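Marked as duplicate of an earlier ticket. Keeping the data here for the record.
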Amino acid sequence: MSELGSARGSGSRDQVPVLITEAAPSYDDQHAARKRKYMLMMGMRFPCLILAGVFYHTWWLALGFIALSIPLPWMAVLIANDRPPRKAEEVSRYQREAKAIERTEHRVIDG
């Protein structure tokens, strides 16, 4: 056994290591992704309003672009503020054998 292995202990614990590929993205990465989604959705609103102005002769198409641009800010805020759910992971806890405590008589003092 190597020096590192002997320094860790007896190795009797069967702990499953956490793979780095299963690790959740960092908070900064999640925040950056949410900011990109927000900017993309808010950036789509401006072209929708411009297209509504371009197609003002075709009233139903202009109305469709305006109707599309109305919920975009609301949806962008909801998506930007939504964090991904936490993964339910089984926690590896230290378990030891329960040893019986010797049964002895205890003095009871009535007050």
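See parent ticket for discussion. The first helix runs from residue 3 to 8.
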